[in-house]
Amino acid sequence: MIKFTLLLIFLSITAFSNTITPIPNHLKINKEKAQLGKLLFNDTRLSRNDTISCASCHFLKEGGDDNLKVSIGINGLKGELNAPTVLNSVFNFRQFWDGRAKTLQEQVLGPIENPVEMDNDFKILVPKLKQTEYKQLFLNIYKEGITKESISDAISEYEKTLITPNSPFDRYLRGDKNAITKIQKEGYELFKEKGCISCHHGINIGGNLYSKFGVMINPDIKNLGKFNLTKNENDKYSFKVPSLRNIEKTPPYFHDGRVSDLNEVVKLMTLYQLGRDISDAEVFKIVEFLKSLNGEIKVGKE
Ligand code: HEC
Ligand code: HEC
What we know:
By secondary structure, the protein is mainly alpha-helical. The protein has helices at about 1-15, 30-40, 55, 105-115, 120-130, 135-140, 150-160, 170-175, 180-195, 225-230, 260-275, 280-290; strands at about 210, 240. It is globular, with a radius of gyration of 21 Å.
Protein backbone atom coordinates (compact mmCIF):
# COMPACT_ATOMS: atom_id res chain seq x y z
CA MET A 1 0.00 0.00 0.00
CA ILE A 2 2.80 2.39 0.99
CA LYS A 3 4.70 1.46 -2.19
CA PHE A 4 1.60 2.09 -4.27
CA THR A 5 1.03 5.50 -2.66
CA LEU A 6 4.67 6.38 -3.27
CA LEU A 7 4.31 5.34 -6.91
CA LEU A 8 1.23 7.51 -7.26
CA ILE A 9 3.06 10.48 -5.72
CA PHE A 10 6.03 9.88 -8.03
CA LEU A 11 3.81 9.68 -11.11
CA SER A 12 1.94 12.84 -10.23
CA ILE A 13 5.20 14.73 -9.61
CA THR A 14 6.70 13.63 -12.93
CA ALA A 15 3.44 14.27 -14.76
CA PHE A 16 3.37 17.75 -13.26
CA SER A 17 6.97 18.57 -14.06
CA ASN A 18 6.75 17.22 -17.61
CA THR A 19 4.49 19.97 -18.80
CA ILE A 20 5.09 23.03 -20.91
CA THR A 21 3.77 26.34 -19.66
CA PRO A 22 3.20 29.51 -21.72
CA ILE A 23 5.36 32.61 -21.43
CA PRO A 24 3.54 35.49 -19.70
CA ASN A 25 2.82 38.48 -21.94
CA HIS A 26 4.66 40.90 -19.63
CA LEU A 27 6.98 40.74 -16.69
CA LYS A 28 7.08 43.43 -14.03
CA ILE A 29 10.12 45.54 -14.70
CA ASN A 30 11.67 48.81 -13.64
CA LYS A 31 11.44 50.81 -16.88
CA GLU A 32 14.20 53.33 -16.12
CA LYS A 33 16.68 50.60 -15.28
CA ALA A 34 15.68 48.58 -18.37
CA GLN A 35 16.18 51.61 -20.64
CA LEU A 36 19.63 52.17 -19.21
CA GLY A 37 20.35 48.45 -19.58
CA LYS A 38 19.34 48.61 -23.22
CA LEU A 39 21.88 51.37 -23.89
CA LEU A 40 24.59 49.35 -22.16
CA PHE A 41 23.66 46.12 -23.99
CA ASN A 42 24.20 47.85 -27.33
CA ASP A 43 27.28 49.87 -26.38
CA THR A 44 30.70 48.76 -27.68
CA ARG A 45 32.39 50.96 -25.05
CA LEU A 46 31.84 48.10 -22.61
CA SER A 47 34.69 46.25 -24.35
CA ARG A 48 38.35 47.11 -23.83
CA ASN A 49 38.87 48.53 -27.33
CA ASP A 50 35.36 49.85 -28.05
CA THR A 51 34.60 47.21 -30.69
CA ILE A 52 32.27 44.63 -29.10
CA SER A 53 28.91 44.97 -27.36
CA CYS A 54 26.59 42.32 -25.98
CA ALA A 55 24.55 42.82 -29.16
CA SER A 56 27.60 41.84 -31.28
CA CYS A 57 26.99 38.22 -30.28
CA HIS A 58 23.32 38.31 -29.38
CA PHE A 59 21.35 39.63 -32.38
CA LEU A 60 17.90 40.20 -30.97
CA LYS A 61 16.11 40.15 -34.30
CA GLU A 62 17.61 36.83 -35.33
CA GLY A 63 16.87 34.59 -32.41
CA GLY A 64 19.12 36.27 -29.82
CA ASP A 65 22.32 34.45 -30.78
CA ASP A 66 25.03 35.08 -33.41
CA ASN A 67 24.40 32.30 -35.97
CA LEU A 68 28.03 31.19 -35.70
CA LYS A 69 29.42 27.79 -34.73
CA VAL A 70 31.39 29.41 -31.92
CA SER A 71 31.39 33.12 -31.05
CA ILE A 72 33.99 35.60 -32.22
CA GLY A 73 34.94 38.26 -29.72
CA ILE A 74 37.52 41.02 -29.39
CA ASN A 75 40.30 41.13 -32.05
CA GLY A 76 38.64 38.26 -33.92
CA LEU A 77 39.36 35.78 -31.11
CA LYS A 78 37.25 32.63 -31.12
CA GLY A 79 35.64 31.08 -28.06
CA GLU A 80 34.90 27.38 -27.64
CA LEU A 81 31.16 27.53 -27.27
CA ASN A 82 28.09 28.25 -29.34
CA ALA A 83 26.28 31.37 -28.09
CA PRO A 84 22.92 30.50 -26.57
CA THR A 85 20.10 32.97 -27.04
CA VAL A 86 19.54 35.81 -24.57
CA LEU A 87 15.82 35.67 -25.36
CA ASN A 88 13.83 34.25 -22.45
CA SER A 89 17.07 33.71 -20.49
CA VAL A 90 15.30 35.24 -17.49
CA PHE A 91 13.37 31.96 -17.21
CA ASN A 92 16.46 29.71 -17.07
CA PHE A 93 17.27 28.25 -13.65
CA ARG A 94 20.93 29.03 -14.23
CA GLN A 95 22.95 30.72 -16.98
CA PHE A 96 25.66 29.39 -19.34
CA TRP A 97 25.94 25.88 -20.81
CA ASP A 98 27.50 24.58 -17.59
CA GLY A 99 25.19 26.66 -15.38
CA ARG A 100 28.03 28.42 -13.60
CA ALA A 101 26.11 31.70 -13.14
CA LYS A 102 23.15 31.44 -10.79
CA THR A 103 21.51 34.68 -11.88
CA LEU A 104 21.42 37.04 -14.84
CA GLN A 105 23.23 39.65 -12.73
CA GLU A 106 26.06 37.21 -12.18
CA GLN A 107 26.07 36.17 -15.85
CA VAL A 108 26.70 39.73 -17.11
CA LEU A 109 30.06 39.86 -15.36
CA GLY A 110 31.33 36.93 -17.45
CA PRO A 111 31.52 38.34 -21.03
CA ILE A 112 32.69 41.80 -19.94
CA GLU A 113 35.84 40.37 -18.35
CA ASN A 114 36.27 37.32 -20.62
CA PRO A 115 39.57 37.75 -22.52
CA VAL A 116 38.13 36.34 -25.78
CA GLU A 117 34.86 38.28 -25.56
CA MET A 118 35.00 41.91 -24.33
CA ASP A 119 38.32 41.62 -22.46
CA ASN A 120 37.57 44.42 -20.03
CA ASP A 121 38.12 44.83 -16.32
CA PHE A 122 35.59 46.59 -14.09
CA LYS A 123 38.51 48.50 -12.52
CA ILE A 124 39.03 50.08 -15.95
CA LEU A 125 35.43 50.10 -17.16
CA VAL A 126 33.84 51.90 -14.20
CA PRO A 127 36.15 54.97 -14.31
CA LYS A 128 35.91 54.98 -18.13
CA LEU A 129 32.11 55.16 -18.05
CA LYS A 130 32.23 57.86 -15.36
CA GLN A 131 33.83 60.14 -17.95
CA THR A 132 30.76 59.83 -20.18
CA GLU A 133 27.05 60.66 -20.25
CA TYR A 134 26.48 57.46 -18.25
CA LYS A 135 27.66 59.25 -15.08
CA GLN A 136 24.42 61.24 -14.86
CA LEU A 137 22.22 58.48 -16.29
CA PHE A 138 23.29 56.14 -13.49
CA LEU A 139 22.99 58.81 -10.78
CA ASN A 140 19.39 59.39 -11.86
CA ILE A 141 18.60 55.81 -10.82
CA TYR A 142 21.33 54.50 -8.51
CA LYS A 143 22.48 56.72 -5.64
CA GLU A 144 25.86 54.95 -5.66
CA GLY A 145 26.26 55.80 -9.37
CA ILE A 146 28.26 53.55 -11.69
CA THR A 147 29.50 50.35 -10.05
CA LYS A 148 29.99 46.77 -11.20
CA GLU A 149 26.72 45.93 -9.44
CA SER A 150 24.66 48.77 -10.93
CA ILE A 151 25.93 47.92 -14.43
CA SER A 152 24.87 44.28 -14.10
CA ASP A 153 21.62 45.26 -12.41
CA ALA A 154 20.61 47.54 -15.30
CA ILE A 155 21.56 45.05 -18.03
CA SER A 156 19.77 42.18 -16.32
CA GLU A 157 16.66 44.35 -15.90
CA TYR A 158 16.71 44.96 -19.66
CA GLU A 159 17.06 41.23 -20.28
CA LYS A 160 13.71 40.73 -18.53
CA THR A 161 12.12 42.57 -21.47
CA LEU A 162 13.65 40.13 -23.96
CA ILE A 163 10.89 37.56 -23.75
CA THR A 164 8.95 36.05 -26.64
CA PRO A 165 5.33 35.47 -25.65
CA ASN A 166 2.37 34.52 -27.80
CA SER A 167 3.91 31.74 -29.90
CA PRO A 168 1.33 29.62 -31.75
CA PHE A 169 2.04 26.79 -29.30
CA ASP A 170 1.45 29.03 -26.26
CA ARG A 171 -1.83 30.17 -27.79
CA TYR A 172 -2.72 26.50 -28.28
CA LEU A 173 -1.89 25.80 -24.61
CA ARG A 174 -4.13 28.69 -23.61
CA GLY A 175 -7.07 27.09 -25.42
CA ASP A 176 -6.94 28.25 -29.06
CA LYS A 177 -7.19 24.81 -30.65
CA ASN A 178 -6.57 26.17 -34.14
CA ALA A 179 -3.38 28.04 -33.28
CA ILE A 180 -1.22 25.15 -34.51
CA THR A 181 -1.60 22.83 -37.50
CA LYS A 182 -2.61 19.16 -37.50
CA ILE A 183 0.98 18.13 -38.26
CA GLN A 184 2.25 20.29 -35.38
CA LYS A 185 -0.22 18.60 -33.01
CA GLU A 186 1.07 15.21 -34.18
CA GLY A 187 4.62 16.47 -33.66
CA TYR A 188 3.74 17.51 -30.10
CA GLU A 189 2.32 14.03 -29.41
CA LEU A 190 5.55 12.47 -30.74
CA PHE A 191 7.62 14.90 -28.63
CA LYS A 192 5.84 13.46 -25.57
CA GLU A 193 5.74 9.82 -26.71
CA LYS A 194 9.42 9.64 -27.67
CA GLY A 195 10.42 11.16 -24.33
CA CYS A 196 11.82 14.53 -25.45
CA ILE A 197 9.57 16.19 -22.88
CA SER A 198 11.30 14.40 -19.99
CA CYS A 199 14.17 16.90 -20.43
CA HIS A 200 12.62 19.70 -22.46
CA HIS A 201 9.71 21.02 -20.42
CA GLY A 202 8.68 23.97 -18.26
CA ILE A 203 8.33 27.54 -19.42
CA ASN A 204 11.46 27.46 -21.63
CA ILE A 205 11.02 23.84 -22.75
CA GLY A 206 14.45 23.33 -21.22
CA GLY A 207 16.59 25.65 -19.12
CA ASN A 208 15.48 24.11 -15.83
CA LEU A 209 17.67 21.02 -15.38
CA TYR A 210 20.99 19.47 -16.30
CA SER A 211 21.45 16.38 -18.41
CA LYS A 212 24.35 14.48 -19.81
CA PHE A 213 24.84 14.96 -23.56
CA GLY A 214 24.86 11.35 -24.70
CA VAL A 215 22.79 9.46 -22.12
CA MET A 216 22.62 6.35 -24.36
CA ILE A 217 25.38 6.89 -26.90
CA ASN A 218 28.57 8.92 -26.44
CA PRO A 219 28.60 11.76 -28.99
CA ASP A 220 32.38 12.35 -28.65
CA ILE A 221 32.67 15.78 -27.09
CA LYS A 222 35.55 17.76 -25.70
CA ASN A 223 33.90 20.15 -23.26
CA LEU A 224 33.38 18.57 -19.84
CA GLY A 225 30.32 20.69 -19.04
CA LYS A 226 29.20 20.88 -15.42
CA PHE A 227 32.29 18.87 -14.37
CA ASN A 228 34.26 22.10 -14.94
CA LEU A 229 32.54 23.56 -11.88
CA THR A 230 32.03 20.61 -9.60
CA LYS A 231 34.93 18.25 -10.49
CA ASN A 232 32.42 15.49 -9.82
CA GLU A 233 32.86 12.52 -12.23
CA ASN A 234 29.08 12.14 -12.58
CA ASP A 235 28.86 15.66 -13.99
CA LYS A 236 31.15 14.97 -16.95
CA TYR A 237 29.49 16.02 -20.23
CA SER A 238 26.43 17.36 -18.40
CA PHE A 239 24.96 20.59 -19.69
CA LYS A 240 22.00 22.77 -18.90
CA VAL A 241 19.27 21.37 -21.13
CA PRO A 242 18.82 24.19 -23.67
CA SER A 243 15.53 25.99 -24.22
CA LEU A 244 13.68 25.05 -27.40
CA ARG A 245 11.86 28.37 -27.72
CA ASN A 246 12.52 30.03 -31.12
CA ILE A 247 14.81 27.09 -31.86
CA GLU A 248 14.20 27.34 -35.61
CA LYS A 249 16.00 30.71 -35.54
CA THR A 250 19.16 29.73 -33.68
CA PRO A 251 21.29 27.35 -35.76
CA PRO A 252 23.92 26.01 -35.48
CA TYR A 253 23.00 23.74 -32.58
CA PHE A 254 24.57 22.05 -29.55
CA HIS A 255 27.14 23.56 -27.19
CA ASP A 256 29.86 23.29 -29.84
CA GLY A 257 27.66 24.25 -32.79
CA ARG A 258 28.38 20.92 -34.49
CA VAL A 259 25.05 20.56 -36.36
CA SER A 260 23.17 23.17 -38.41
CA ASP A 261 20.18 21.19 -39.64
CA LEU A 262 17.33 20.96 -37.15
CA ASN A 263 16.14 17.65 -38.65
CA GLU A 264 19.57 16.18 -37.97
CA VAL A 265 19.49 17.50 -34.39
CA VAL A 266 16.16 15.79 -33.72
CA LYS A 267 17.50 12.50 -35.14
CA LEU A 268 20.66 12.71 -33.01
CA MET A 269 18.71 13.60 -29.87
CA THR A 270 16.51 10.53 -30.31
CA LEU A 271 19.59 8.37 -30.73
CA TYR A 272 21.98 9.90 -28.16
CA GLN A 273 19.50 10.77 -25.40
CA LEU A 274 16.84 8.10 -25.84
CA GLY A 275 18.59 5.26 -27.69
CA ARG A 276 15.67 5.01 -30.10
CA ASP A 277 15.06 5.06 -33.84
CA ILE A 278 12.95 7.66 -35.54
CA SER A 279 11.55 7.81 -39.07
CA ASP A 280 12.00 10.80 -41.38
CA ALA A 281 8.24 11.40 -41.26
CA GLU A 282 8.35 11.56 -37.45
CA VAL A 283 11.34 13.91 -37.52
CA PHE A 284 9.42 16.16 -39.93
CA LYS A 285 6.46 16.34 -37.56
CA ILE A 286 8.60 17.11 -34.52
CA VAL A 287 10.42 19.86 -36.42
CA GLU A 288 7.06 21.33 -37.47
CA PHE A 289 6.04 21.30 -33.79
CA LEU A 290 9.31 23.05 -32.88
CA LYS A 291 8.46 25.82 -35.36
CA SER A 292 5.27 26.52 -33.40
CA LEU A 293 7.54 27.66 -30.53
CA ASN A 294 8.56 30.87 -32.34
CA GLY A 295 7.21 33.72 -30.22
CA GLU A 296 6.87 37.46 -30.70
CA ILE A 297 10.06 39.38 -30.23
CA LYS A 298 9.22 42.75 -28.75
CA VAL A 299 12.57 44.39 -29.44
CA GLY A 300 12.29 48.15 -29.44
CA LYS A 301 8.74 48.20 -28.08
CA GLU A 302 9.59 48.41 -24.40
C1 HEC B 1 31.92 37.37 -28.07
C2 HEC B 1 30.54 36.99 -28.06
C3 HEC B 1 29.69 37.33 -26.85
C4 HEC B 1 29.53 38.56 -26.25
C5 HEC B 1 30.23 39.87 -26.56
C6 HEC B 1 28.53 38.37 -25.22
N1 HEC B 1 28.09 37.07 -25.21
FE1 HEC B 1 26.64 36.31 -24.07
N2 HEC B 1 27.22 34.46 -24.58
C7 HEC B 1 28.16 34.14 -25.54
C8 HEC B 1 28.51 32.74 -25.43
C9 HEC B 1 29.51 31.98 -26.29
C10 HEC B 1 27.77 32.22 -24.35
C11 HEC B 1 27.86 30.82 -23.77
C12 HEC B 1 29.08 30.77 -22.84
C13 HEC B 1 29.07 29.63 -21.85
O1 HEC B 1 28.08 28.92 -21.74
O2 HEC B 1 30.09 29.46 -21.16
C14 HEC B 1 26.94 33.34 -23.87
C15 HEC B 1 25.98 33.21 -22.86
C16 HEC B 1 25.12 34.24 -22.48
C17 HEC B 1 23.96 34.09 -21.62
C18 HEC B 1 23.46 32.78 -21.00
C19 HEC B 1 22.32 32.19 -21.78
C20 HEC B 1 22.02 30.77 -21.35
O3 HEC B 1 21.02 30.21 -21.80
O4 HEC B 1 22.80 30.18 -20.59
C21 HEC B 1 23.41 35.33 -21.47
C22 HEC B 1 22.16 35.68 -20.67
C23 HEC B 1 24.25 36.26 -22.20
N3 HEC B 1 25.26 35.55 -22.81
C24 HEC B 1 24.11 37.64 -22.21
C25 HEC B 1 25.15 38.49 -22.60
C26 HEC B 1 25.29 39.88 -22.19
C27 HEC B 1 24.33 40.62 -21.29
C28 HEC B 1 26.43 40.35 -22.78
C29 HEC B 1 27.07 41.72 -22.64
C30 HEC B 1 27.45 42.11 -21.28
C31 HEC B 1 26.98 39.26 -23.56
N4 HEC B 1 26.19 38.15 -23.40
C32 HEC B 1 28.10 39.37 -24.36
C33 HEC B 1 28.69 35.04 -26.45
C34 HEC B 1 28.79 36.40 -26.18
C1 HEC C 1 17.88 13.13 -21.33
C2 HEC C 1 17.61 14.52 -21.65
C3 HEC C 1 17.22 14.90 -23.07
C4 HEC C 1 16.28 14.30 -23.88
C5 HEC C 1 15.43 13.08 -23.58
C6 HEC C 1 16.23 15.08 -25.09
N1 HEC C 1 17.11 16.13 -25.02
FE1 HEC C 1 17.38 17.56 -26.43
N2 HEC C 1 18.98 18.25 -25.40
C7 HEC C 1 19.43 17.78 -24.18
C8 HEC C 1 20.72 18.38 -23.87
C9 HEC C 1 21.55 18.16 -22.63
C10 HEC C 1 21.05 19.19 -24.98
C11 HEC C 1 22.32 20.02 -25.15
C12 HEC C 1 23.43 19.10 -25.69
C13 HEC C 1 24.72 19.87 -25.90
O1 HEC C 1 24.78 20.70 -26.79
O2 HEC C 1 25.65 19.64 -25.15
C14 HEC C 1 19.93 19.11 -25.92
C15 HEC C 1 19.84 19.81 -27.11
C16 HEC C 1 18.74 19.81 -27.95
C17 HEC C 1 18.56 20.66 -29.10
C18 HEC C 1 19.54 21.74 -29.55
C19 HEC C 1 19.35 23.01 -28.77
C20 HEC C 1 20.37 24.08 -29.02
O3 HEC C 1 20.06 25.24 -28.74
O4 HEC C 1 21.48 23.79 -29.47
C21 HEC C 1 17.35 20.35 -29.66
C22 HEC C 1 16.70 21.00 -30.86
C23 HEC C 1 16.80 19.27 -28.88
N3 HEC C 1 17.65 18.97 -27.84
C24 HEC C 1 15.59 18.63 -29.15
C25 HEC C 1 15.23 17.40 -28.58
C26 HEC C 1 14.21 16.52 -29.09
C27 HEC C 1 13.33 16.80 -30.30
C28 HEC C 1 14.19 15.43 -28.29
C29 HEC C 1 13.38 14.16 -28.45
C30 HEC C 1 13.62 13.43 -29.66
C31 HEC C 1 15.18 15.65 -27.24
N4 HEC C 1 15.81 16.85 -27.46
C32 HEC C 1 15.41 14.80 -26.17
C33 HEC C 1 18.75 16.90 -23.36
C34 HEC C 1 17.75 16.05 -23.81
